[in-house]
Amino acid sequence: KEFLVEISGTTVTVTCPLTEDSIVWELTGTKPATNERKYVIENHDSSPANVSCSSGRKKYEMYLNARVCTNCEELDALLVTGIIAADLLITFGVLILVYYFSKDRKGRASASAGSRPRGQKTQRPPPVPNPDYEPIRKGQREVYAGLESRGF
């Protein structure tokens, strides 16, 4: 048999596994004045305590290390599950939107850049050199010997 411990805010309720009517409680050396099966600790300060309940020769002991707070909110399992599921759905939705928008952007960029027809690439001949700007080759210096620099 085990103790049942319930925590709500700063109130801790301990239920003894004994079913007798007269139960003697003991809390770290002090004996509270209650004979009921449930022992309620108001304004618990989160300090560890040894709790025991006895009736006749039967005695049950427990080490109580309950953390309490004044501004805590109690959440049930269904609410926590709903919050996690909603968070996952939103995250996956954002991932899908980012994927599709980035996919479309890549498609648009390649369509605008490739506006010319995509057939076989034909090789263009090199541009015809302009004879006025031909480089000076060895043995042809006399062609350009008549050109002199002009003074400004």
From TrEMBL:
Which UniProt key words apply to this protein?
Answer: Cell membrane, Immunity, Immunoglobulin domain, Membrane, Receptor, Signal, Transmembrane, Transmembrane helix
GO annotation, cellular component aspect: alpha-beta T cell receptor complex; external side of plasma membrane
Q: Name one GO molecular function term.
A: transmembrane signaling receptor activity
The transmembrane segments are 77-101
Coiled-coil residues are: none
- What's one Pfam family the UniProt record gives for this protein? Ig_5
Top-level taxon: Eukaryota
Region (Disordered) location: 109-139
Q: Which GO terms describe its biological process?
A: cell surface receptor signaling pathway; positive thymic T cell selection
Give the membrane topology: Single-pass type I membrane protein
Indicate yes or no for the key word NADP: no
**Compartments where found:** Cell membrane
Q: Is Signal among this UniProt entry's keywords?
A: yes
- What is the protein name given in its UniProt record? T-cell surface glycoprotein CD3 epsilon chain
In which organism is this protein found? Answer: Steatornis caripensis
Q: Which gene encodes it?
A: Cd3e
